[in-house]
Amino acid sequence: MQKLRIIVLAKQVPDTRNVGKDAMTPEGTVNRAALPAIFNPEDLNALEQALRLKERFPGSTVHVLTMGPGRAAEVIREALYRGADGGYLLSDRAFAGADTLATSYALATAIKKIGDFDIILGGRQAIDGDTAQVGPQVAQKLGVAQITYAEEIIDVTESRITVRRHIDGGVEVVEGPLPVVITVNGSAAPCRPANAKLVQKYKRAKGRQERTEGEPYAHLYDERPYLNITEWGVADVDGDTAQCGLSGSPTKVKQVENIVFQAKESKTITDSDADIEGLICELLAAHTIG
Amino acid sequence: MNNVFVYCEWEGTAVAEVSQELLTKGRKLADTLGCKLEAIVAGADLSGVESQVLPYGVDVLHIFDDKDLYPYTSLPHASILINLFREEKPQICLMGATVIGRDLGPRVSSALHSGLTADCTSLEIGPYEDKKSGKSYDNLLYQIRPAFGGNIVATIVNPENRPQMATVRKGVMKREVVSPDYKGNIVRHKVADYVSDTDRVVRVLERHVQKAANNLSGAPIVVAGGYGMGSKEGFDMLYELAEVLHAEVGASRAAIDAGYCDHSLQIGQTGVTVRPKLYIACGISGQIQHIAGMQESGIIISINSDPAAPINSIADYVVVGRVEDVIPKMIKSYKQNSK
Questions:
Q1: Contacts of residue A264 in chain B, CB cutoff 8 Å?
Q2: Domain-by-domain residue ranges, chain B?
Q3: How distant is the Cα of B6 from the closest Cα of chain A, in angstroms?
Q4: CA of B74 to nearest chain A CA: how many angstroms apart?
Q5: Assigned fold of B4-200
Q6: ipTM score assigned to the predicted complex
Q7: Which is it for strands A160-167 and A170-177: parallel, antiparallel or unpaired?
Q8: Model-level pTM?
Q9: CATH fold label, B216-337
Q10: pLDDT tens, B93-125?
């Protein structure tokens, strides 16, 4: 049976689904400190598909690739807890301010550095941008086919993969070649929880930026190499800084505004029978209803 | 050269509505810029497609007709756009923020190294000054979209790279025929000149498309529920009200995240945009992301026990009370007073 080399693209994102009042400053900018950083939800769906393939094809490997600041190593630990074999953190000031195109350039460059792969999986989109662009852009930069909005990987043979995917108003089953980039939709199976044994094994796994001088257990990192999360900068992946970060981004943010809606003069009524009847009669008389 | 292009989605027998909405927007942008509007349709059995495209004010229609172009797969359609754009050098390219547009757009933008903005809610033309380089630009496309989960609105520009690409969701732009017999040129391309055999590697084995289970985007009356409905059972009340009013049921993201109803009912920036003549918001607090998807409704009624709920500021009528008290009273009162 074949062994698949799988790379999962994952992103640490601010939890924009639970934005409280304190998450926005009075000036209308985002107070990132007030938002917890989480594993992008659809990237977890992607990780689950990868782990299922690893179970079906023993000897397959699953590695996670993420880009972000030092603390984004948390995403890799989370993946290790669930069964991934290892991870890579792309972290460099030169990557900062990247739009989707510069992000996909950085990821594609890192993937080339990692080496040959059969399947790249990632979430359909990240909840802080909702663009769904990075997956297809990575596929284009690697010159491989793409299957987006995937719900389930049905089958993998020597050189072909069959995937059920979501389309507008339905589903379709497509068959494509390997290697391939697949983005996974939130309607796919949820990710398994962390495994207690793996948490024990990997809880001290750290990236270079997370290490501190005089930390306890420092000797562990020499004794157990798997606790060292690989961290790469632009130079490590032979990247061209002009194509990274802000300078590699064709899109520029002209302005950012807080949203202000035109307030209307509204009529406030109570929940008494008379008030509600009055409202219904008003709507009927205006032929808004009826 | 340097015209506005719209990629039109072919749904098997007709051009997608969202594409016609974008043609209408594209016509306006082209008028502002003083250039032509061009459309691309790639699909199979496209005879007669011009009558669905030209009336929206299209000056040039590019047709790619080949059995492998329908159902849609990424690579052939991407190659068509990439190669055509290398020849035609459009300044703007618009496509639907559909599953197809969101699959195709990024692949094309990556190949052409052009900027792409997803899910724009507004498109305008204006100047831009790059403070860093000191360069100024005229007539850029302002790609305006919600960002950060819908909590802010960002205006994005692509100063240096072309085409300036944007996707827009269905229902966000209005669809308007310019003239039923608008005269445009039709160019039928030889598909093999644009698509190589290696592009034809993904095959669609099966396809099940159902007619949408709801007609939210076109409904004249929408009854929408939020987290305040309290439970899945609480939503039953909404279906009852919707039935007597001949309305469609929608929901806020909070209600969907709480599992009260299906994803397809979501109204808002990341869901469906609605413009009914009457919108009844039940137990919806009114997060920006929700309001952006329904603010153009004719009459808005908000039923909420919190008199300070944000949605109340855009409502025409605010009923302060618990949904479980108010909705049954509305149903009863409607039954008594309608003939």
A1: 300, 313-316
A2: 4-200, 216-337
A3: 19
A4: 7
A5: Rossmann fold (3.40.50)
A6: 0.89
A7: antiparallel
A8: 0.86
A9: Rossmann fold (3.40.50)
A10: 999 999 999 999 999 999 999 999 999 989 999
